[in-house]
Amino acid sequence: MNKRKIRIFAVGAVAVVAATSAVAVGTTSAATTDDDNRDAVSAASSESRFRLADPDTVPTNKNDYITYGTSSSGKKCGGGSGGFKVPMLRHGSGGDVGIADCAIGDALPRKNIGAWADKSSGVWAPGVVKHGGKYLMYYTISKKGSKQKCIGLATAKGASGPFKDGSKHPWACPPSGRWVIDANPYVSGGKLYVVYRDDQVTRGIESGVSVVGAGRNGWADKGFSSRRTVLTSKNIAWDSTKNAGNNHIVENPSMFKVGKTWYLAYSANAWKSARYATGIAKCGTKPIPQKRCSPIRDGVKRPYFGFKGKAGLGPWRGLPGNHAGSGGMDVFRAHNGGHRAVYHWYQRSSGKRFPVTGNFVWQDGGFAVK
């Protein structure tokens, strides 16, 4: 067997292991798929049978992990099933991230959603971070009396919540009516930043991604003065390939750092298709990029990660299980300092999406998920 070198990123060091001896991240649960050209699932990746999209995974102070996602319904860990505005899956221990097949509860109950929001609508793509002695959740929901999607900010003492948005106004909601969604917070040097889909910086059917600094309370710098546009749909070509609506979509951003360099993971194309995939762009050495991030590995023409099948877009690299519609990727640090990734895939036969976690490594000249 050809042994390829895999580098697992860690704080202050890089460990090298053989591809044939990858360490398991947790229990691997087989999810149903209708994907053709499916590869064997890596021993280091874990799949969930709980329907959850746009996942965000956070290490907790109990040495385990919680994964949050878009509003859904499914199995409760204590028995029975139900609906959740923001479902929470609790899983893993230490460096073993894993995933769960049941929800421990609702991180943002309907009554705790901001008064400015349409509480009857679903919550999209929550992003959570611990900062300033509390947990902050950025969530997307429709503005009351409008179909405009805006971002709210809720807080909690612990990772399992319940989170509450006590504000009378959203964190971001452009007066132009343009959408802002998919906020994902991150911390560097003790300072908080937020990356999000920001259609305010584009026009018509185009979309964009921006980064802004925030204070200890989670609110953006006054007047969003530090905001920088880091990518737009005009910077890539595969965002609308075979898209019947011809919408140019870039969304679900996540900023992560390897060595001294910051990278942007983002999703593009139609989420209800095998074409929804993940791009990676290089962003320089500052947590707020000083210029546009540059898609890597021929990333203008094709995604970095995605479905390697006839219905896909010819990505540079596949993912464990070779699932259709793999997007919403978030790259995060495990308790042992290593990089991990969480993302969802799209089951074409049912229209459902399911989360996957895995090791985020350097292999054969590029990032890979194992």
UniProtKB/TrEMBL annotation:
SUPFAM superfamilies: Arabinanase/levansucrase/invertase. Gene3D superfamilies: Glycosyl hydrolase domain, family 43 (2.115.10.20). The keyword Membrane does not apply. The lineage of its organism: Bacteria, Bacillati, Actinomycetota, Actinomycetes, Kitasatosporales. Pathway: Glycan metabolism; L-arabinan degradation. GO terms for biological process: carbohydrate metabolic process. Residues 31-57 are annotated as: Disordered. Keywords: Glycosidase, Hydrolase, Signal. This is Arabinan endo-1,5-alpha-L-arabinosidase. The record marks 182 as: Important for catalytic activity, responsible for pKa modulation of the active site Glu and correct orientation of both the proton donor and substrate. Residues 1-24 form the signal peptide. GO terms for molecular function: hydrolase activity, hydrolyzing O-glycosyl compounds. InterPro entries: GH43_arabinanases, Glyco_hydro_43, Glyco_hydro_beta-prop_sf. It comes from the Bacteria. It holds the Pfam family Glyco_hydro_43. Belongs to the glycosyl hydrolase 43 family.
